[in-house]
User: Fold this.
Amino acid sequence: MTALIRFVLNSQPKRKRSQLDGNISGFTLIELLVGLLLAFLVIGPLLGFMVNILDTDRKEQAKTTSEQEIQSALDYIARDLEQAVYIYDAPGVAAIGAQLPPTVAPTTVDGVPVLVFWKRQFIPNAFDMGGSTFDDAFVYSLVAYYLIKDSSCVATSTWSCAARIGRFQIKDSVNASNGAEVRAADPGFKRFDLTLNKPTLAEKMNLWTKGTSNYTSNVDTLIDFVDQSTTGGFPTPSCPTVTQQVPSYTGTGAVAARFQTSSFYACVDSSKTTAQVFLRGNSLARIRPKTAVPTYSASNSAYFPSANVTVKGRGLLGDN
Assistant:
């Protein structure tokens, strides 16, 4: 058997060394360069296309988030305004502006009051009626919404370097039927005086001054990433002829110049009980560095979503 196997192996045709070497082949340098060039021409555009899709997706997600937050903020403001009994117009805000609190830190943060009004504040379980029974109450409160901008901003800032909306509120004390104070008024609160010898309700309300105590209530942030643009052809604030725009942006100086915008303003009617509120966000500020916040332009206006709401207060103050 061994001899048979040896015979079969020896009978196979022999190949020369040169023949074996001729069957070994590979890519030449030119072939490799051509292959790399073709790969670049195909993969490059595909990679750019994917990067563009991912960037667009980030922008659309940021835009959707801004739209939702703007609508939520306007819904909150609308619920607040529904309880209003008097809304200050532009001259009114200018008249009592010095009585309102500054924002967080005037040296680094600037804010202007935009929407200021008195409302009837509901206080649940204000009175202890005994036997685990409580009764509710209503008091007057003063509410102010600010447009706030940081004059300087760093990457570690708490808020974005875009604008934001802040809310301030102080309310009156709760008194029992016998005049006893059940719950104290907020520091700095003082009720408006309708007994003043002035011919109109607006003149009386414009003479309001704060109480003797210092404010302890904060200007709390309602929404961030509000458009901060003051250039770039943003939409001009526009109010119907029967209303007044608040704020009027008639101030001068560097601070006033930074608020020449239409990102947050209100149109108040002559009765001081109805207001149309406008708000515009900056969704691109969510995905860009804080220190390089994009500004409004016609080409990127889709990423500066806006909305507005018109609200009529349910209450009314008598002109007496």
About this structure: The chain has a mean pLDDT of 82. Residues 47-312 form one domain. The chain has one domain: 47-312.
